[in-house]
Write a structure and sequence with these properties.
By secondary structure, the protein is α+β, with helices and mostly antiparallel strands. The chain contains 21 helices and 24 strands. Helix 14 (512-569) packs antiparallel against helix 17. The longest helix has 58 residues, at 512-569.
């Protein structure tokens, strides 16, 4: 009985006959070939199992598997020998080192390598089975024929249209292969092809894994090397050297985007033999390869710089060196901001691969982080130095510049908290200095109240932003605001805001890095504000102590002077009275003499009174609870202001008592009122407003005069500034120096606010008396 056997797929010149195969199988089994056939089938199962066991974690012994296939081939075809070669598609040749054979005498044959035009070459070219008796134009290899081979079958080993090798089977008798033998060989061929293909794939995977492990190790080493640099220039040089090392590049250049974002500026260059590198600023655009990469924000892998379109826009690194290949990648921050371009070049064609491009992009990601951190570190080091040697306003002005530079912002501003308002202290553009915002309901106020970052997608239409006109004028859209706070356990002292232009995705609101940077800068802004407050408190304390010591010494001198004057001048009225008593008759006859004696007595008494009144303020002050409203009223009555000057008081009646000296405080208000009247030239309005804070009472005296220019505001309290003594007889002539000195002796402060055009406001602060309610 015949058994139908499935025929292997593949082109052949002689169609197999199912009945013939069955008859051959029956004859084969009758001739005691059944054990051999069963052993061959077992070998097929063993080969398949060996192929299936190979995996990424297993050691691939492809030679042993192929040897098993060759031995199975000679078992299927009794008396035959078999040879298997792997095929190198890239070189279009057989890999002679991969030769595996089975059966004698071919195991000892040398010089039987496949010929370029032999049976194996034709099988590879046609991708079909070649039988020597079907190819009369091809002779059997002479070296093989010398061993007694009379018939040859050559199978191409093909997997997924890819040739991976060839199987040679030699018969040492002049006969054709039976259909059963060819069918069994077809199965062995498929197994051999899969074994080679699978082994190659696994080897390729292992090579890729090894290279990826090496790349990861390089990137890890690069990260450690890059992060160890402190300065930005050192960081850029380290990144460039590492990029050249991991890709095998010969030359490289690093360019960063300038502040306006229009050009690429060279910051680092490397390579042996560079004589005159071209480091000119390149515009972002299609005029150079690096400009093209920056504009399109995608890598450029150029195999040959002589090819179009790169040959037209290539900008040489050095005119004396010819480069043939180039690899450039953009450096894009997490927020979508372009930081620069990293460019590598080589004099060899095709020096860079896709793997190099991916590796350089991974390195570029680390480079962006390192560049941002280096920039931030440089900025913080600079600000730390400024904190020690510059004023608070100078430090805040530099901080807003750094915020725009580090965050690519169009404008930035710092606001400080004063009561329920935020006052502008520093701004790069847009906001006028001294502008005030409400704490509640404003974008900046929300950051202060929530103690966290606040963002806005478009400040032009955000109700929380109180100056949409400025936003539209300057083109501001997105905004990021953080509280100005020195530590988590302190209350915010203000807000730090930065604005950007454009509506591209990935800007301020989406970038956590931007929030981190602005928070760091805000921390230094808070340190500047706190440091200024401490310095001012220290200066005020030192000044108050110096004034107290000075006045103590001057008071002693004044007491002695008053005693001496009283002894000398005080005798004049007594002697005048004696003359009047002794010479009454004579004086009655001489009215002129009587009048002059009376004038002498009056002048002496007025001189004594004037000296006593003016030297009174030089005596030690005894501070007691004082009513501010009463002192202001007494000062207004004593000044005798012109009719053209009006005075309005607001919020004084409900103020708690302050610690002061009544006569000294009256003199302070009187001096301010007279100065305001003089500044307004006897015509204008004076407003006196009172308010109470935490342990303080503040009184603001405002006028409608021409104001005090900013450059004079630091001088008006100097002793040498006022000239009232020459213009107004009877006054000491110390001007506002008296006001500042007396306020210091009373434990308070005085400050002036004015734009130099629209009047001036003097703010007096006095401590609340013990037991007073605020």
């Amino acid at each position: 009985m015949s058994i139908p056997i499935p025929v292997a797929a593949g082109p052949t010149r002689r169609a197999p006959c199912r009945i013939q195969i069955g008859q051959e199988l029956q004859v084969h089994t009758q001739n005691d070939g059944l054990p051999r056939l069963l052993e061959a089938l077992g070998r097929l199962n063993q080969i398949g199992a060996a192929i299936n066991r190979t995996g990424p974690g297993e050691r691939v012994d492809v030679a042993a598997t192929l040897r098993l296939i060759a031995e199975s081939a000679i078992m299927v075809v009794p008396g035959a020998s078999a040879v298997i070669y792997a095929w190198n598609e890239a070189h279009q040749s057989f890999d002679l080192a991969s030769r595996v054979s089975a059966g004698e005498p071919l195991a000892t044959v040398r010089g039987d390598e496949p010929r370029p035009s032999g049976l194996g070459a034709r099988a590879i070219a046609t991708r079909r089975r070649i039988l020597s008796y079907e190819e009369p134009d091809l002779a059997i290899h002479p070296a093989v024929a010398a061993t007694g081979a009379r018939t040859v079958a050559c199978y191409p080993l093909v997997v997924a249209e890819e040739v991976v090798g060839a199987l040679y089977v030699y018969l040492h008798e002049a006969r054709e292969f039976s259909q059963l033998e060819l069918l069994m060989l077809d199965n062995l061929v498929n197994q051999a092809a899969m074994a080679i293909y699978h082994a190659r794939r696994l080897a390729s995977i292992r090579r890729d894994l090894t290279r990826r492990e090496e790349d990861i190790a390089r990137l890890r080493r690069a990260g450690l090397l890059i992060s160890s640099r402190l300065r930005l220039e050192e960081t850029l040089e380290a990144i460039l050297q590492m990029a050249m090392e991991v890709t095998g590049a010969h030359y490289g250049i690093f360019r960063l985007v300038d502040r306006p974002g229009q050009n690429l500026v060279a910051r680092a260059v490397a390579g042996e033999g560079l004589r005159r590198p071209l480091l000119e600023t390149l515009p972002i655009g299609a005029t150079s390869v690096m400009g093209w990469v920056a504009r399109h924000r995608q890598p450029a892998l150029i195999r040959d710089l002589r090819e179009e379109p790169w040959s037209r826009i290539y900008y040489p690194l050095d005119h004396e060196l010819e480069m043939r290949s180039e690899l450039a990648v953009p450096l894009i921050a997490a927020g979508g901001r372009l930081e620069g371009v990293l460019n590598l070049e080589s004099p060899r064609v095709g020096a860079f691969s896709e793997q190099d491009s991916l590796l350089l992009q991974a390195l570029a990601t680390q480079a962006v982080i390192a560049i941002q951190e280096a920039r931030l570190l440089d900025a913080l080091q600079e600000v730390a130095g400024r904190l020690l040697g510059e004023t608070c306003d100078q430090v805040l002005a530099r901080l807003v510049e750094l915020a725009c530079d580090l965050l690519d912002g169009a404008a930035s501003a710092i606001w400080t908290l004063e009561g329920d308002e935020l006052v502008l202290r520093a701004a790069s553009a847009g906001h006028p200095r001294g502008e005030r915002l409400p704490l509640h309901g404003s974008l900046n106020g929300q950051a202060v109240l929530t103690r966290g970052p606040v963002t806005s997608a478009n400040v032009q239409c955000d109700a929380r932003f109180h100056r949409p006109d400025l936003a539209r004028t300057n083109g501001w859209t997105r905004a990021l605001v953080v509280p100005v706070v020195a530590a988590d356990d302190r209350e915010p002292v203000g807000a730090f805001s930065v604005y950007s232009i454009g509506d591209e995705a990935g800007h301020l609101p989406e970038s956590e890095w931007d929030k981190k940077v602005l928070t760091c800068l805000a921390h230094y802004a808070a340190l500047a504000v706190h440091n200024a407050a401490r310095q001012e408190a220290l200066r005020a304390a030192q000044e108050q102590r110096a004034v107290a010591e000075t006045f103590a010494a001057v008071g002693d001198l004044a007491a002695n002077l008053l005693h001496q004057i009283n002894n000398k001048v005080g005798t004049i009225p007594v002697r005048v009275q004696g003359i009047e008593d002794r010479c009454a008759a004579l004086l009655a006859q001489d009215p002129y003499l009587e009048a002059n004696l009376a004038e002498i007595e009056r002048s002496a008494r007025e001189a004594m009174e004037t000296v006593r009144n003016n030297l009174y303020h030089l005596r030690p002050i005894c501070r007691v609870p004082v009513d501010v409203a009463a002192c202001v009223g007494a000062a207004i009555r004593s000044c005798r202001l012109p009719r053209g000057v009006t005075v309005a008081c607001e919020g004084l009646e409900g103020l708690p008592p302050v610690t002061a000296a009544e006569r000294s405080l009256e003199l302070v208000f009187a001096n301010l009122l007279e100065n305001a009247s003089d500044a307004m030239q006897g015509r204008g309005h004076i407003a006196i407003r009172g308010s109470a804070g935490d342990g303080w009472v503040e009184v603001a005296v405002s006028d409608t005069g021409p104001g005090v220019s900013p450059e004079l505001q630091g001088r008006i309290f100097e002793l040498s500034y006022s000239g009232r003594g020459a213009s107004q007889p009877g006054k000491l002539g110390f001007g506002l120096w008296w006001v500042k000195t007396l306020m210091a002796r009373l434990g308070g402060t005085v400050a002036v606010e004015s734009d130099g055009q629209h009047g001036a406001t003097f703010r007096l602060r006095l401590p609340v008396a013990e037991g007073g309610e605020v």
